[in-house]
Amino acid sequence: MTDYPDYTSLLQIVGSDITVPIDIETATIGNIEVDIKAQSITDLRIDIEAQSVGVYLQPDWQTKEGNDKSFAATSAILAPNGNYVSDYVVAGGGDLYITHLSFAIYASAAEDFDKQHDGFIVFSHMVAGGVRVTIGANSGFGLALNRPLLIPAGATYRMYGTNKSNHNCYMALSSGGYQV
Amino acid sequence: MQGLKKLKSGDFNSMSQELQPDGSVTIHLHRRKGKKDYSFRVKNLYQLNEEEVDIDTGEPITKGSL
After folding, report:
1. pLDDT tens per residue, range B14-65
2. Which of A49, A151, A175, A1 is nearest to A102 (CA)?
3. Which residues in chain A have Cβ-Cβ distances shorter than 8 Å to B16?
4. What domains are defined for chain A?
5. Cβ contact A59:A67 at 8 Å
6. Measured between CB atoms, which of B9, B14, B19 is closest to A74?
7. Which of A26, A65, B13, B66 has the fewest CB atoms in 10 Å of its CB?
């Protein structure tokens, strides 16, 4: 590739209707940053041919970048209808995106181990009308969200569980996602 | 007090909480890129009377217990 010069200059295009075919041929690509701001994109096709290219979904990418967040909370013994709350005020400047959540409920006393343990959980953005995920299940449940639960920066993310069994139980709540 | 500061700054990847019988919460923070994990215990987390207490006893932290 010695027949070609090195290009490191900024290409900035501003217009109301733009069509830009880009064909890059090089031995190595150091870094390409593409920042597109548009009300609509008719067609965006990216064809990458390289020996090693990783294309990540957002949760995977943010985990790779170290922006992932995981939360786990375990209650004390909960009497029937007793509840447990775990709050986190979203700190650090970015919004929190919860992509998966789960809970477990289990008897605290050995004589109740083989009984049914019903639990009820709410994972939510603690504000009037805030988004929430509500689940009731026997012994526990897990869920991967196909659309993240968004908790804005500075808001409270609440994991809430209630023991709906007729005996004492523990509850364990967990969830995770990323913050950007 | 460093752990509570890390929690309030969001400087962690994973957090686990354990509710204690006295209503306080034991919190463990982990950040992959850091070389320190933090464990601490808090009463009335996020309330006006929030107080970090001794992680073993739940009693107020005094200079002698640090």
Report:
1. 999 999 999 999 999 999 987 789 999 999 999 999 999 999 999 988 766 5
2. A175
3. 71-74
4. 68-179 (2.60.120)
5. no
6. B19
7. B66
B12 neighbourhood in chain A, CB within 8 Å: 69
What b/e sequence results for A63-84 when a residue is b if at least 16 CB atoms lie within 10 Å of its CB, and e otherwise? beeebbbbbbbbbbebeeebbb
The interface predicted TM-score of the complex, written ipTM, equals: 0.90
C-alpha distances in angstroms, B47 versus A55, A73, B43, B50, B54? 43, 18, 9, 5, 18
For B11, name the nearest residue in chain A, comparing CA atoms only: A92
As a whole number of Å, the end-to-end CA separation of chain A is 38
- Name the residue among A52, A57, A53 with its Cα closest to residue A100: A57
Q: Cα-flanking dihedrals φ and ψ of residue B22, to 5°?
A: -85, 5
Q: Which of residues 5-64 of B touch A (CB under 8 A)?
A: 7-21, 25, 32-33, 45-46
pLDDT digits over B1-12, tens only?
Answer: 788 999 999 999
What are the two backbone dihedrals, phi and then psi, of residue B8, each rounded to the nearest 5 degrees? -75, -20
